[in-house]
Amino acid sequence: MSDKIELSCGRCGSKQFILPDNPSASDTVKCARCGAEGRYGDLQQQALVQAKAEIDKVMKNAFKKWK
Question: In the chain, what's the furthest Cα-to-Cα distance?
Answer without folding.
Answer: 49
